[in-house]
Amino acid sequence: xxxxxxxxxFRVWLLGPFALEVHHxxxxxxxxxxxxxxxxxxxxxxxxxxxxxxxxxxxxxxxETDLDASTEQNLHTCVYFxxxxxxxxxxxxxxxxxxxxxxxxxxxxNRDDCxxxxxxxxxxxxxxxxxxxxxxxxxxxAFRSGLELYRGDFLVEEPYLDxxxxxxxxxxxxxxxxxxxxxSLLANEADDIGEAILVCRQGLRKDPYREDLYHALIGYLIDxxxxxxxxxxxxxxxxxxxxxxGLDPSREARALLERIHSGGRIDxxxxxxxxxxxxxxxxxxxxxxxxxxxxxxxxxxxxxxEPVTLMMVSVYGSKSMEESVDAAAALxxxxxxxxxxxxxxxxxxxxxxxxxxxxxxGRRVKRExxxxxxxxxxxxxxxxxxxxxxPILGALxxxx
Length: 400
Prior knowledge:
Blueprint: E1 10-13, E2 19-22, E3 25-26, H1 35-46, E4 52-53, H2 54-61, H3 69-86, E5 99-102, E6 105-108, E7 114-116, H4 117-131, H5 136-149, H6 162-188, H7 193-206, H8 211-223, H9 227-245, H10 251-264, H11 268-273, E8 283-285, H12 287-301, E9 308-316, H13 321-331, E10 337-342, E11 345-351, H14 355-369, E12 376-384, H15 392-399
Parallel strand pairs: 1-7, 8-10
Antiparallel strand pairs: 1-2, 2-3, 4-6, 5-6, 9-11, 9-12, 10-11
Helix pairs in contact: 1-3, 4-5, 4-6, 5-6, 6-7, 6-8, 7-8, 8-9, 8-10, 9-10, 13-14
């Protein structure tokens, strides 16, 4: 790792595999005396400057242990180990100005001589958004610099670390949005469609299931007159959606197919026929029938390894719920079930859909329903795996 300043006391990389550099020297993970101490540091580094109560840290590190004097001593020991790693010149009983404790609140201080990649990534993303309208070329530089910091998902080597899940989603969405904004600026302000295409391809390598990136990439290929490449990319996208999630291409993708047809003399109908398709959409039911389906899915789950996803879609704004139900049903597969759960919520039951598929479906539903003026949509879901002992209607109550 190379320091960007001779004054840096430490640098932390959280986007992608974890890495730490102290006084210009990389600290291998094997040097940490305990995994608990490492997790404590990573948690505080992700919230630098925030004062975290000791009870929160105890619950984070020892979730199955009753809090007592020994737990508090264990926390003190972890804090000591962290301080020895990040502040190796600290005298044995001296107070640290990096990792502080006051009134039972622990804090990794937000000092200028220390650096965390996720903070810099977010700062550059925010700067790019502020400059989009007033100074597009400076915005391009900010987005480009920020995206270079995104080596991968937040703490990618720790997929089951509970507290990291929300941050992983947060930074991934920021990365995708920054990618789309940078590509748009490159194509429309810098007149560099070639780099816009490259940026979209790089984004898809990080998240190969993002429809909005496919839409942008195919559109830029069409704009560049690269119709054969656009057709190839459309076919790859459509097959992926069908094989992975059982979904047809989105409405936006089908509109791009017509652009390929009109500009490149490529037969759109033949291209569409080359991709397998499902027929129909989700079944629209009332709430009582929906609950009955969930009961049946719960019984079938005992005999099948296939997951069941329950999704709640809250719709705020002027769109009628009947219209929202029909629009959502049209996006989904035959065999899925949609109902109006109450005055502003839709219930969706997706059989055989895992977490990745639920995210794809949720984004598609949100994008479609938010097309109306002033409409805002929030999507939450819970995936229940085959053989799980958790009651499906209990999950339904939690979701809704």
